[in-house]
Amino acid sequence: MRPPERMGRPLCLITGASSGIGAALARTYAARGMDVAITARRADRLEQLAAELRQEYGVAVQVAPADLADPAARPALLAALDRPVDVLVNNAGYGIGGRYARTPWEDMEALLQVMLVAVCELSRAVLPGMTERRYGRILNVASVAGLIPGQAGAPLYNATKSFVVRASQSLRQEALGTGVHVTALCPGYTWSEFHDVSGGREALRRLPGWMWLTAEHVAQNGYAAVEANRAVSIPGAQYKALAALARITPDSWMLAAAHRLRLRVRQV
Fold it and tell me: Active-site residue 157, yes or no?
């Protein structure tokens, strides 16, 4: 469904847009003629991306730096935009490596603010307007990790992504027939700066090449999925197979396999 003509050019807000999947999604939506608002903590990277999008696609770009771990940042972000959001892409996220008991609570609380609370709050803020206009898209970037059992070393990551998947499914059901689409995008390992932030880049270089996706492929998949109003989308045949296997395999087996892979990758 295309947006009503009376709306003019739609506005797409993308969180975590300074690099990786977020930047690829910004390019994907700009290439389709949407104005975009991009947010992340690194203002310089956002300005570089904005200049590229304006020159390449001729769209309007709003740059709104924000730290979504700060509860005050979410309403301030929406208030800074020049019009209501028609497409929301909740992409901001990161991982924390290390054992739960050894990780400062402040670090974990910030992660929960970004990957759970911000997703819920921003979605709740834009849904009424989307419903009233009979057009809207919410694309929540989760992970295939949310479809498989949790594992040591990242105790909150799988759990938060699982929450995002289930919440997206519920919101989609509520929005049926309103013109609003909601999709959870569940990529696997993707080439981006994500693993630099979590400190796992060197270890993950030991994974075979077939396990890696490109940010561009993930972004294109996400755009197509939310336009088709698919509840969950998993880019890559390898990860579709993994998710299907997880549905029929006992958790104990999946956990044992994940443990073996972890030992192989980290050589511990």
Answer: yes
